[in-house]
Amino acid sequence: MSPQHAGERDAREERGPTVPGAAAKRAGAAPEPVLRTHVFDAADLRRALTRIAHEIVERNHGADDVVLVGLYTRGVALARRLGSAIATFEDSEPAVGALDVAFYRDDIGLRPVAPTGPTEVPDVSGKVVVLVDDVLFTGRTARAALDALHELGRPRAVQLAVLVDRGHRELPLRADYVGKNLPTRSTEDVRVRLAEVDGDDGVDLWGVPQQEVAG
Amino acid sequence: MVEHLLSIDDLGGRAGIETMLDLTDSFLEVTRREIPKVPALRGKTVVSLFYEDSTRTRMSFEAAAKRLSADTMNFSVSTSSVKKGESLLDTVQTIDAMGVDAIVVRHGAAGAPHRVASWSSSSVINAGDGCHEHPTQALLDAFTLRRHRGPSLDGCRIAIVGDVRHSRVARSDVIAFHELGCELTLVGPPTLMPERLDGWPVEVTADLDHVLADVDVIYLLRIQRERIDQALFPSLREYSARWGLTVDRASRCKPDTLVMHPGPMNRGIEIAGEVADSSRSLVTEQVANGVAVRMAVLWSLLGSGGPIV
User: Fold this and answer.
1) Which tens digit of pLDDT belongs to each residue from A162-183?
2) Is B134 a catalytic residue?
3) For chain B, which domains are there?
4) Which of A37, A68, B105, B244 is least surrounded by CB atoms within 10 angstroms?
């Protein structure tokens, strides 16, 4: 799977199943999304991750039992960065894993769903698993991740870390660690860029011009 | 979007084949878990409709479907209404009426899965039709070889040895390996070569000893005694002496030359038992990877919800 391919999938996922006409609108005469706000630049993003790294260690009284599990695609890169960040101020570097939730999604068959990479998760039984993703939106990806994780072992606890919480939850879930709470419209698009995947770091908010959305 | 997998050509060439092989990595990981099962195809039903004997392909598809949580049904010709004279059309319509999502077809007549696809509203997967094609075998062969020689197979030299004439595996493999950039040589007695090789991207020779030292992979085909109804070679002993991969021949290959076989093997005829069990042999790995490849195919047809390939 090429990086571009994976990127497209993520872009769809962030829009989520609540905007079924999004693809059709883009294809037709619909207005192109425009950049609204730079939410994070590279330094902001680094600071947010550093804070989350400290919060994880503080909450769990160290990092010995912590396993960071990133959700494909950008969550995996974020989990690796959190692991390296924790290693700079703790004696031990927490184990890091990668989780693909495609097979556990609740919208299989409703829209294109593609596995993005092989799941590689260390033994999680008895550990504190911190699921890591870039954007928390409807909560459906996190729910799928809980199911996927459940089949790999029995963690002592599961926590959720996200770079951006953009609201619009459709399930009773919340994040334990949040880089930025970002109020958004459901039609808007939070685009996270990470050097490992996209070439550089940053978070932007995109949206279609307001008057045309109303029509 | 792929609706059926009847020929390796349905994947649309190199890019499509490579996408399917990439996808297979995800499913191989699933098969290696302590609980090798994901709920991806819950509620889907996969029927295997086998008009020819098979152990590995049928079991492989069944394992693949079960590991994706699909329901499986078996239609075994020897214990079914086919014995009472039911036609293929009526059988397919009956299965279709039960509301299934995929039909895995093996049939002795080339093109039978294409007919089934035209009659049925389900996705049809060709699990071998006569001497024509066996696309999932080609995918698992390419996947297995890529894990040893990959990710790129460009320039990989492969000798396909034996009964090419009756081999659907050879047809699908030639297409897939050629698309992936391999250089192919068909080796065997002229009587076991297809009557026409026009347009096949292959070299042909009858002399196995001549190519032994040059190739990266020796792919041995089974002598299909059930399809050979005339004397195409003098005796099995003579066949083995000239085209069998004996211990002596294996010792004249490069140290890293790999040996593949689609199974079931005729030990002592096309392959010596010692060679089949040696570290060169990928035979059991081919079988293990077959489940993951078929999971990827079932997922693409039934679960992906869109154009993965």
Assistant:
1) 999 999 999 999 999 999 999 9
2) yes
3) 8-134+287-303 (3.40.50.1370), 135-282 (3.40.50.1370)
4) A37
